[in-house]
# Entry
Amino acid sequence: MQRDLQNLRKSYEKDALLENNLPESPYILFDSWFQEATSSLEIDEANAMSLCTLGVDGFPKSRIVLLKEILEGKFLFYSNYTSEKGAAMEAYNKVSLHFFWPSLERQIIIKGHVNKVSKEKSLDYFHSRPRGSQIGAWTSDQSSTILSREQLEEQLLYFEEKFKDQPIPLPDFWGGYDCDPVSFEFWQGRPNRLHDRILFELENDRWAFKRLQP
# Structure
């Protein structure tokens, strides 16, 4: 397969990110940008983020997950603990989160340490999910191979019948993670590929920022 993509380009001209407009905390800037993203009619899921982990095979891997809460400065998301990403985070708990909002010409990259949340926290969120999503968590042995879609549908029918007319328990293999950030990089598209990049890092328990060249 060959495809020439050299002429696919756009000019970024919607906004700027300058030092004299920066807050002291990256959380304030994140919240401001996130609120704009959630208000935008051009963005379907502002809380969609790419989670990058270092796999047990030594390869980094990214996939989209949904940010569900920011609690005490930590970014919470949920998954199957025995999945490929679960195994990766168990082995190496340094991750990055990447938000990309093309219509705003903005990106945010967060690096941090990730840990499992309490079972109580996972249970509260699990029971807030639609019933179909709860059954789906039981149905899928996430990241493992399966013979066919039909087999997956059979597993779904099995758990629908098993939990018929009763509350669905939290699976032992499913729950939440929180990411405790050590850095935030904010990217604002600018003309001529001279983009604004501002990096916030923790220094002696305080946030300090610096500009990176594009």
Q: What stands out?
A: Residues 26-39 form the longest helix (14 residues). The helical segments are 26-39, 84-91, 119-128, 131-139, 149-162. The chain has five helices and nine strands. The CA atoms of residues 78 and 176 lie 4 Å apart.
